[in-house]
Amino acid sequence: MAKIIAGIGSSHVPAIGAALDNGKTEEPYWKRVFSGFEKSQQWMRDTKPDVAIVVYNDHASAFSVEIIPTFALGCAAEFPPADEGWGPRPVPVVKGHPALASHIAQSVILDEFDLTICNKMEVDHGMTVPMNLLFGKIDKDSHWPCPVIPLAVNVVMYPPPTGHRCYMLGKAIRKAVESYPDDLRVVIFGTGGLSHQISGPRAGLINSKWDKTFLDNLSKNPQKLAKIPHVDYMREAGAEGIEMVMWLIMRGALDDKVDEVYRFYTVPASNTAVGHIILENHRRGGKTPARRKPAAGKLKHAAARAKIQRVRG
Ligand SMILES: [Fe+2]
Q1: Which end of the chain is more exposed for a tag (fewer CB within 10 A), N or C?
Q2: What is the mean pLDDT of each run of 10 residues along the chain (313 residues)?
Q3: Residue 64: helix, strand or coil by DSSP?
Q4: Which domains does the chain have, with CATH numbers?
Q5: Over the Cα atoms of the chain, what is R_g?
Q6: What's the pLDDT score for residue 289?
Q7: What distance in angstroms lies between residue 4's CA and the mean position of ligand 1's atoms?
Q8: CA 264 to ligand 1 center in whole angstroms
Q9: What are residue 107's phi and psi, to 5 degrees?
Q10: 290: exposed, middle or buried (Cβ count in 10 Å: 0-12, 13-18, 19+)
């Protein structure tokens, strides 16, 4: 049986991708951001998921104002990086997992969540930047470490889905994954945000207090977040802060009680707040979410976990 072992929340600031692609990660401004993900990359190397589901939003790359699906699931065998105006990012083509994706589509749609099925789709920075932050920089002629199932969510044109709808969709995705017969260890990403507004009189808005409370509740009290209406995101986190509802899909797919193993928060990056969190499902029967291998691997994971310090900005 497949199972979701952990959830990852991460911003997807496009300038982070540009900094990575243009060799600026050691510049002091960007080093502050990238250094916050070094422990996360070690966690990912230790965890070695079989599949990742990445919840993200398209920025008029695969879709346009002509067609805007609320939830679009990538069921293709591969997803090329999109040309966002200056050529595709120099990252590998994302390889999908059509069998699991199709299984999720069937289960979730029959559970009355009306996903759009995408058998051809390009993916933009909304997906590839968080993947770089967790998997590291990977040459475009190489490959990502595991297959990825994209789930695109409309947060660019009103009305986006409610936080509650997202949270419940996460639960339906978990049910779908757990009814898949193969033994797959799955991680799920929620991406976007945190607080930011990129246009209008409030351009540049960042609300660190809101962001940190959001991260606290994401970890301990997600049901409270699921009740937040759109207008509160707009008022408190800025127009583009509505991207944060996507983190609730990730959270809905996890146990009610989770282990927060890492958190990072810094401002600003470009004109946004960068937030990041890793939540593991509770260990069952003393097993860790790390890949079960020899005892040495277990010890290595435990040592890595011991080194991880929770960063509370
Ligand atoms: Fe975005």
Answers
A1: N
A2: 97 96 96 97 98 97 95 98 96 98 98 97 98 97 98 97 98 98 98 94 96 98 98 96 98 97 95 96 60 50 46 37
A3: strand
A4: 3-307 (3.40.830.10)
A5: 18
A6: 59
A7: 25
A8: 19
A9: -65, -45
A10: buried
Please list, in sequence order, all residues whose beta carbon lies within 8 angstroms of the beta carbon of residue 221, skipping any fewer than 6 positions away. Answer: none
Please give the C-alpha separations between residue 18 and each of 141, 206, 229, 276, in angstroms, as whole numbers. 18, 21, 33, 19
Q: Are 176 and 108 in contact (CB under 8 A)?
A: yes
Compute the distance between CA of residue 294 and CA of residue 61 in angstroms, rounded to an integer.
44
Q: In which element (H, E) is residue 265 found?
A: strand 258-269
- CA 262 to ligand 1 centroid distance, Å: 23
Q: How many CA atoms lie within 13 A of 141 on its CB side?
A: 0
C-alpha 242 to ligand 1 mean position (Å): 10
Residues 6+ apart with CB under 8 A from 292: 298
pLDDT at 282: 81
Catalytic site positions: 125, 196
- Residue 163 Cα to ligand 1 midpoint, Å, equals 17
Output the CA 64–ligand 1 centroid distance in Å: 14
Residue-level pLDDT at 310: 42
Sheet with 185-191, strands from edge to edge, namely 116-118, 71-74, 148-153, 51-56, 185-191, 3-10, 272-281, 258-269
